[in-house]
Design goal:
mainly beta; Jelly Rolls; seven-stranded antiparallel beta sheet; 2 helices; 25 strands; globular; disordered N terminus
Length: 358
């Protein structure tokens, strides 16, 4: 309990306080209205996210699981879809137990439910599984692929438009097919891809391509639009591309980071830049709009976030605006102590703090 020792405010109104303590922030991708149906010629449309000669490495030296969203991977399962994935799993220590490392498909629904499909390596074998509610630890579908024991794989994962049929193949002739009773990603408006990295393991992606079968009068997902899949690029003074991203408190990390569709967090801008910085041909700029950005932990930058090839990565406030990064929380729920001039409230999940502001 926190008790203020000042006089009670006039008219018995509770004062407004903030504390310099951290709180957990949970971000949910808001659904985006889909555009009107468009008639297209039937064909497979490919959206390369990672491809040779580039690769993205996700090491995890901690004892906790980590997930890293792959920028521009969001699609809608409104047609047959396949993911072409080249990945390699490495152990950073000899005994990693049941560490589960691989690829995760995350389906975001309008109600805020997150659906999860995993393709992971654990206990020396590859497995696939589906969890319709992320807060539930139970997988309603799980298959351990006993013959797949090699940590380096070239997969093609296909899911039919009705979410009922799964096919998984690799380049060595392996094939797994199954028809499900439940519908995968039922009601999901956007399906994004994340790399899952188990404790003391490393996940290396050298290819990630999303292909969708285009049909007559299908709905094209907004996340397949060119400005979502490709970072914003303009011509620099020497004619080379110069990448510019924007961050706003009113943005969304499912956006492409453009001026009119900014990201919501600096962390996401950092992660996006990591996927393109190894091939820098000019400086990369991130403009942060004014407002208060609530953070639950420090934003960490490493040597991977430094400029490459003699160029810079620059984060700067938008001209004339004042962004604030705050680990504080609002103290609410004030009640007047009976027969006293004091006010009280209870801070949930706060073990201690050093500063209190009125």
């Amino acid at each position: 309990m926190l008790t203020s020792c000042g006089s009670a405010p006039s008219q018995n109104r509770a004062p407004t306080f903030t504390t310099a303590v951290t709180s957990t922030v949970v971000s949910v991708i808001s659904p985006t209205p889909l555009p009107s149906p468009t008639l297209v010629v039937p064909e497979w449309k490919a959206s390369p996210l990672i491809d040779s000669p580039f690769q993205v490495v996700f090491p995890n030296e901690s004892q906790e699981y980590q997930r890293k969203e792959i920028f521009g991977s969001g699609i809608a399962l409104d047609t047959d879809t396949r993911w072409i994935i080249n990945l390699q799993v490495d152990r950073l220590v000899e005994n990693v137990g049941e560490a589960s490392t691989g690829i995760v498909l995350l389906g975001y629904t309008e109600s805020g439910t997150i659906q999860t499909f995993v393709l992971v390596y654990q206990w020396g074998k590859w497995s696939i599984g589906y969890q319709p509610i992320s807060t539930d630890s139970n997988f309603t579908y799980w298959q351990t692929l006993q013959s797949l024991t090699t940590t380096t794989q070239h997969f093609e994962l296909s899911i039919s438009h009705d979410g009922k049929n799964i096919t998984l193949t690799n380049d060595e002739g392996f094939m797994f097919q199954d028809t499900l009773e439940e519908k995968l990603f039922d009601g999901a408006q956007v399906i994004a891809i994340s790399a899952q990295i188990g404790p003391q393991t490393k996940n290396t992606l050298s290819k990630l391509i999303v292909e969708q079968l285009q049909k007559d009068e299908i709905v094209n997902s907004p996340s397949l639009s060119p400005d979502f899949l490709i970072p914003t690029a303009i011509a620099s003074g020497n004619g080379e591309p110069k990448y510019i991203f924007y961050v706003s408190v009113n943005g969304n990390d499912a956006n492409p980071g453009t001026a009119d569709k900014p990201f919501a967090t600096i962390e996401h801008a950092r992660d996006v830049i990591r996927t393109i910085s190894s091939n820098m041909q000019s400086s990369i700029m991130v403009y942060v709009h004014g407002g208060t950005y609530s953070i639950s932990q420090p934003i960490q930058f490493t040597t991977n976030d430094s400029g490459q090839n003699g160029y810079d990565i620059i984060y700067r406030a938008e001209e004339g605006e004042n962004p604030i990064l705050s680990g504080g929380i609002n103290v609410v729920g004030w009640e007047k102590v009976p027969n006293s001039q004091l006010w009280k409230t209870t801070l949930q999940d706060v073990k201690g703090f050093r500063q209190l502001y009125i």
